[in-house]
Design brief:
There is one protein chain. Helix 5 (184-199) runs antiparallel to helix 7 (241-257) and helix 6 crosses helix 7. The chain has two domains: 26-118 and 129-154, no CATH class; 184-201 and 209-282, Arc Repressor Mutant, subunit A. A hairpin with a 2-residue loop joins strand 1 (26-28) and strand 2. It is an alpha+beta fold. The longest helix has 24 residues, at 131-154. The chain is 43% helix and 9% strand. The strands form two sheets. A four-stranded antiparallel beta sheet has the order 2-1-4-3. It has a three-stranded antiparallel beta sheet with strand order 5-7-6. Pfam families: SMC_ScpA. Participates in chromosomal partition during cell division. May act via the formation of a condensin-like complex containing Smc and ScpB that pull DNA away from mid-cell into both cell halves. This is Segregation and condensation protein A. Keywords: Cell cycle, Cell division, Chromosome partition, Cytoplasm. It comes from Bowmanella dokdonensis.
Length: 283
């Protein structure tokens, strides 16, 4: 009998985290180009050309030609033209202005290559400009215009980033002004300022008639009948001394307690004003 076969031994293999490699930007003469040049802008929907010696964005191809890293004489212009026409059909409803930019590029490439391949004229001088220099000049102009267009596109644009409103306010619309409430602390601080001014006039004591809080309340209400708003500090007569100031202050507090007057401010920390309470507000 044959000995029984041993069970296969399964050796656990540690999981290896997948390594994500960056996708190449283009292939130039079979070599992958991973990083984009810092001084080159490639639109998101750039035209991708697939040639024997180059595969990638047309913007990068023009960049390499301008940097003299790619021979324009080896470019198959016919293939670029065919791929451009397919690109135009695809981008008609998306970004037609970008297709127009690439039309200019393809036309420049065709012109420059024809001037490179055609034999030179017999009467041509040695100082005649190299066709590649003309391409470089035009590409630099194109890049400058494209950078300016990008800067303008960032600026706010009417009907895209903001819209004008033609609504007119109603004639019956009245602004509602909400006055800040007067706190007890602000009232006390204002009263202290009046006391300071009153103490400056107390040089000698003169016997005066007894001051009445009710009489002072009537005087304040009488003044409010003539003026809608009265400054809080103007209610006090510092020449009456501390006694007159205290009586006036008590009269103001009593009027507020009886809901006959209101203390208001135009804005926080502004001067306090006194106004008579209307019948509508009392209700």
């Amino acid at each position: 009998m044959c000995p029984p076969l041993s069970e296969p031994v399964i050796v656990p293999v540690k999981d290896k985290a997948p390594v994500q490699h960056p996708l190449p930007l283009a292939f130039v003469h079979g070599q992958a180009l991973l990083e984009k040049p810092e001084d080159l802008y490639i639109p998101p929907d750039a035209l991708e050309v697939i040639l024997e010696s180059f595969e990638g964005p047309l913007d990068l191809l023009l960049y390499l030609i301008r940097k003299q890293k790619f021979d324009i004489a080896t470019l198959p212009i016919l293939q670029i033209t065919r791929q451009y026409m397919e690109y135009v059909e695809l981008m008609t409803d998306l970004r037609l202005e970008l297709a127009g930019e690439y039309l200019l590029m393809a036309a420049i490439l065709a012109e420059i290559k024809s001037r490179v391949l055609l034999p030179r004229r017999e009467d041509a001088t040695e100082d005649e400009e190299d066709p590649r220099a003309e391409l470089i000049r035009r590409l630099r102009e194109y890049e400058a215009i494209k950078e300016a267009a990008q800067e303008l596109d960032v600026l706010p644009r009417q009907e895209r980033d903001y819209f004008l409103s033609s609504a007119m306010p109603s004639d019956n619309c009245q602004p509602i002004r909400i006055l800040p409430t007067v706190t007890l602390q602000e009232l006390v601080l204002s009263f202290q300022e009046v006391l300071k001014r009153a103490s400056a006039f107390e040089h000698h004591h003169i016997k005066r008639e007894a001051l009445s809080t009710r009489e002072r309340m009537s005087r304040i209400l009488e003044r409010l009948r003539m003026d809608e708003f009265v400054a809080f500090g103007s209610l006090f007569d510092v020449q009456e001394g501390r006694a007159g100031v205290v009586v006036t202050f008590l009269a103001v507090l009593e009027l507020v307690k009886e809901s006959l007057i209101d203390l208001v401010q135009a804005q926080p920390f502004a001067d306090i004003h006194v106004k008579a309470k209307s019948a509508v507000e009392e209700s």
